[in-house]
């Protein structure tokens, strides 16, 4: 398809020139980050991409609506990640606005892929032809997927080549959702063929041609089903139909051999099973090539958590909703005190820690078994892995039992103490384990000292991190962060518009937030060269603790922007901390006498709600945001409006309540307003509590009638 005209418009051409000046300019960029402009604002571009890929995701072939797919870059705009974790920061900025590099992509595939783009050999450079590069990911617009992928009748994808297997791993093409969808598509082909054979036997060839068309969702497995059917003698004449021959996703070409169209052989299945076992059997703390390849080759998000007999939690099963944005999924836990939010975070952290890090916590596993039980377990299902990570514990042993760590895991409690000056450094070593959780279990565990840690970094690494830290501290891009007095007692200073501020001169809230972020960074950078691509699981108890309301409003968005690949689980009692979350990223934990512990994630989307709406919604369940003392006065006032006879004492209480409400201007300021409110209050008092099923039109009609009465009486 020809590139839409918008790709050569003055606006887009100007963006290309901006990128060239930044990346090719003579001046060295220090503490600056290039912000690519979004192409998503061009509706005609999205329409062209949707047409190019037949309304489907270019990678997994699921049907996606016009507003449900993202513009994806086959070769990432920056920070291309290889199979062993090597990150090339500047690859491939020059393709950011090239039509041939754009894909229509569902958010699941985009979230799993991130900026992974492994290649065999070296990467192409700026001004070089990318066709000379040997990518290990299949290009839907160039490659013939059926030469690299095969499917069985249960919807599972199998790699026929190295590129096929790597593509399955990177895009998580064997997710539970895709397996169900593809199996259904496979079965639909057989069902519809049977109906056609009975009802319209003369239309069988048309059926084959139609079912093989690329506009169908999951057309790859549909063609696999059709190829399987043609192995039966009565349907073998249809095997040579051009539509059944493999081709790129956006078109079917007939001049290509049919290699790979048949179902997977036993040998292919055995190789895939062996690969999955090898990819699951590794330790993230290991520096071996095999461990690095297994770790860096695919994204591992927590998709499901099962907890049995862990402290106060008897039985809990939580499924995590897939991300609806291009960043990693979040899950924020709400609920009253004592319902198990912190317990959930502890169970998750212990399961994902390496055995060495878990043992270093010096915890007695017997104390974590639920009262009256003998044993328990926690299972964590990670995306792309064939088996869950399982930790077991019992009354018979002080040790937790579990496999090596598969992900980086960082956990922090609600009390975030700053490191005292002169205290021993808590800077992690490059050979530390796969995570950190001491702070979640010990409230006296200090956070890292940002001054000491940042001052110890090489200048180039310091400048990279300073770019993110400045924005997290709400400083503008032109501000500079510098290390002063490096040789004696170094300290970090922020210079902005003539002002110079040391870290230790910031407020305690700022220092606490800075120390938390620095602590997270100090672990991540030992495994990931850049924060933009760093992956792991971050747990935070009481997300908004020690933060000013302005920070609480921004904390989710800030962490998502600067640590976009980090999956976060957090607890909070603060409605301000819900802004920046999406549908399905909030769960309400409660304890029911009959059902036990229940986690409900079918809650309203907080992204478009005000703070008051969040508080009175099922997210927090408050009946009102009125202060309790005011609510008490209103209650007394309402009773005085409905009671026929009041004792002198009750009359005095009602009069005082009305006077207090009136002095607070809650009963109106003008005679007209007071009369209107009195009529409304009488109606509410009669209703006691507005019925939840009351029709909105009836309520509106009542208000209109009352207003007419006010106008008539005034």
Report the sheet-strand fraction.
5-15%
DSSP helix count? 21
Cα-based radius of gyration, to the nearest Å: 30 Å
Low-confidence stretches: 249-260, 689-697
CATH superfamily of the largest domain: P-loop containing nucleotide triphosphate hydrolases
Q: Give the strand tally.
A: 20
The secondary structure category is: alpha/beta
Report the mean per-residue pLDDT as an integer: 84
- The CATH topology assignment of the largest domain is Rossmann fold
Proportion of residues in helical segments: 25-40%
Task: Give a verbal description of the structure.
With 714 residues, the protein is α/β, with parallel strands linked by helices. It has 4 domains: 1-137, no CATH class; 138-172 and 195-280, no CATH class; 296-616, P-loop containing nucleotide triphosphate hydrolases (Rossmann fold, 3-Layer(aba) Sandwich), CATH 3.40.50; 628-713, no CATH class. Helices cover 35% and strands 14% of the residues. The protein has 21 helices and 20 strands. The strands form 6 sheets. Strands 13-12-17-18-9-19-20 form a 7-stranded mixed β-sheet, with helices on both faces. It has a 4-stranded antiparallel β-sheet with strand order 8-7-10-11, covered by helices on one side. A hairpin with a 6-residue loop joins strand 10 and strand 11. Helix 5 (176-199) crosses helix 7, helix 18 packs across helix 19 and helix 18 (628-642) packs across helix 20. The protein is globular and about 100 Å long. The relative contact order is 0.07. The model is unreliable at 249-260 and 689-697 (pLDDT under 50).
